[in-house]
């Protein structure tokens, strides 16, 4: 997939999601995908290898949850190759993102990407989520890596500030997982439409009882 085709696919998909990307943002996203494809050959950062699939499965899938971000400080837990944090940070320069992962090769890739893209609203932190101790809690903690929402809340709930939220990215309808949320938390599910993806995607906003961001 040539670079013009990558940018065209990004632009069309983002517009379908209601975004209005500028030329600089499209260039950043395309450069990010080039870096990911290059590093992936040596470090196996993602199971997706085709750049056209990366546009849909990585960028558009990540950006689909942007309407559910709350507040100015966002933590991407288990960021891996920078998903969803990097695409979101590119399109939301007014919000601050922390990309958290414990794997060295992924941290090296993320730091390289931030330097290449000059993303000033991003910080990379190498740590396990259990030992991550920010100075201030986050407004939104987002993740697409946890296998269950109950585990997500149990391990990340302490990182969310008053009125903040956890945001889980899920595939097939996760309704049954809501009953496993720890006491004191509730969730609501929204089905997403990711352009070019013929698979189910859902965003789950999880908040403390009595709070709504």
Describe the structure.
- By secondary structure, the protein is an alpha/beta fold.
- The chain has a single domain (about 60-210), classed as Rossmann fold (3-Layer(aba) Sandwich).
- Helix content is about 35%, strand content about 25%.
- The chain has helices at about 5-15, 25-45, 50-65, 85-90, 105-115, 150-155; strands spanning about 75, 95-100, 120-125, 140-145, 160-170, 185-190, 200-210.
- A seven-stranded mixed beta sheet has the order 3-2-1-4-5-7-6, with helices on both faces.
- Strand 6 (about 185-190) and strand 7 (about 200-210) form a beta hairpin.
- Helix 2 (about 25-45) runs antiparallel to helix 4 (about 85-90).
- The model has no long low-confidence stretch (mean pLDDT about 95).
Short description:
The chain has 213 residues and is α/β, with parallel strands linked by helices. The protein has helices at residues 3-16, 23-43, 51-63, 85-91, 104-117, 149-156, and strands at residues 73-77, 96-101, 122-126, 138-143, 160-170, 185-192, 201-208.
From the structure above, extract its key features.
213 residues; alpha/beta; Rossmann fold; 7-stranded mixed sheet; 6 helices; 7 strands
SSE topology sketch:
Blueprint: H1 3-16, H2 23-43, H3 51-63, E1 73-77, H4 85-91, E2 96-101, H5 104-117, E3 122-126, E4 138-143, H6 149-156, E5 160-170, E6 185-192, E7 201-208
Parallel strand pairs: 1-2, 1-4, 2-3, 4-5
Antiparallel strand pairs: 5-7, 6-7
Helix pairs in contact: 1-2, 1-3, 2-3, 2-4, 2-5, 3-4
């Amino acid at each position: 997939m040539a670079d013009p085709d990558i940018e065209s696919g990004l632009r069309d998909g983002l517009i379908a999601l209601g975004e209005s990307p500028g030329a600089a943002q499209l260039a950043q996203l395309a450069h990010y995908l080039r870096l990911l494809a290059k590093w992936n050959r040596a470090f196996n950062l993602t199971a997706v290898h085709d750049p056209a699939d990366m546009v849909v499965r990585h960028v558009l899938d990540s950006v689909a949850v942007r309407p559910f971000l709350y507040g100015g400080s966002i933590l991407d837990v288990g960021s891996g190759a920078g998903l969803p944090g990097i695409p979101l940070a590119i399109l939301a320069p007014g919000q601050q993102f922390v990309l958290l992962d414990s794997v060295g090769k992924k941290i090296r890739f993320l730091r390289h990407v931030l330097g290449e893209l000059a993303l000033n609203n991003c910080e990379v932190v190498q740590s396990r989520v259990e030992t991550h101790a920010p100075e201030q809690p986050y407004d939104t903690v987002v993740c697409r890596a946890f296998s269950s929402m109950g585990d997500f809340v149990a391990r990340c709930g302490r990182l969310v500030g008053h009125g903040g939220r956890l945001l889980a990215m899920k595939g097939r309808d996760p309704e049954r997982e809501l009953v496993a949320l720890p006491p004191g938390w509730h969730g609501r599910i929204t089905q997403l439409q990711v352009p070019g993806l013929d698979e189910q995607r859902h965003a789950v906003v999880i908040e403390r009882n009595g709070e709504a961001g």
